[in-house]
């Protein structure tokens, strides 16, 4: 008989076993049940090692990727964090377990409204919400200690880099067909260090609209 997966076994087998070892990140993921953020018809697949489709052509990220990207933020995840692409709110919730404040942006109003209702119902009180173009970030609330983007940009968004605090990190998928996960750390007023963390697959970061906070 096939063993039934749980949120804890998902984290152990798909996240920790693959190299996400930050105890704070793993603890945050244990406190956030992924099934709550998955569409009702896909609940049987909530703990599978894959991204899952949600409404409006979007996806909820693979558990490992959520853990890996959060770990890449490092200590920056404990401060003021900009979450670009609220989606279902799963990554937002994980960040909210760690951060002082999460500022989350979603381009699609329907997704934003549903995610906000879900997160508020779960009791999160350290999240601020806005509907707007993630490419532009949230300049009124900058600088941020960490910025995490849950959609792939065609190139590294300079606007987001400029909204980092000194010592802050941006974790962003970059590319169209061939995407790579990029980590950018701001080490000075106009100095940034960049490194690549391997291939990924995300929905595109749609931009062109002005932000609305």
Fold and architecture overview:
It is a single chain. The protein is 25% helix and 27% strand. The chain has six helices and nine strands. A hairpin with a 5-residue loop joins β1 and β2. A seven-stranded mixed beta sheet has the order 5-4-3-6-7-8-9. It has a two-stranded antiparallel sheet with strand order 1-2. The radius of gyration is 16 Å and the shape is globular. The N and C termini lie far apart (50 Å). Residues 209-213 have low confidence and may be disordered. It has 213 residues and is α/β, with parallel strands linked by helices. α1 (7-15) packs across α3 (63-73). The chain has a single domain (7-200), classed as Vaccinia Virus protein VP39 (Rossmann fold).
CATH class type: Alpha Beta
CATH superfamily: Vaccinia Virus protein VP39
Helix vs. strand class: alpha/beta
Distance between the termini: 50 Å
Radius of gyration: 16 Å
> What's the total helix number?
6
Give the number of domains: 1
- Major sheet, described briefly? 7 strands, mixed
CATH architecture classification: 3-Layer(aba) Sandwich
Short synopsis of the structure:
The chain is of the alpha/beta class and 213 residues long. The chain has helices spanning 7-15, 23-30, 63-73, 90-98, 109-121, 158-161; strands at residues 52-53, 59-60, 80-84, 101-106, 127-131, 144-149, 164-174, 179-188, 191-200.
């Amino acid at each position: 008989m096939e063993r039934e997966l749980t949120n804890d076994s998902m984290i152990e087998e798909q996240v920790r076993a693959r190299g996400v070892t930050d105890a704070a990140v793993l603890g945050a993921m244990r406190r956030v049940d992924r099934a709550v953020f998955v569409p009702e018809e896909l609940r049987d697949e909530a703990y599978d090692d894959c991204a899952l489709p949600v409404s409006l052509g979007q996806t909820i990220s693979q558990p490992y990727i959520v853990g890996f990207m959060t770990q890449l933020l490092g200590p920056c995840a404990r401060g003021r964090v900009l979450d670009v692409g609220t989606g279902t709110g799963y990554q937002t919730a994980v960040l909210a377990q760690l951060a002082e404040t999460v500022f989350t942006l979603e381009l699609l109003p329907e997704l934003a409204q549903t995610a906000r209702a879900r997160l508020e119902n779960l009791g999160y009180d350290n999240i601020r919400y806005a509907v707007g173009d993630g490419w532009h970030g949230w300049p009124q609330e900058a600088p941020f200690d960490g910025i995490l983007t849950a959609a792939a940009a065609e190139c590294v968004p300079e606007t987001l880099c400029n909204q980092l605090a000194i010592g802050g990190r941006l974790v962003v998928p970059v590319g169209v067909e061939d995407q790579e996960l990029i980590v950018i750390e701001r080490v000075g007023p106009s100095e940034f260090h960049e490194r690549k963390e391997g291939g990924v697959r995300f929905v595109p970061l749609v931009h062109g609209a002005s932000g609305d906070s």
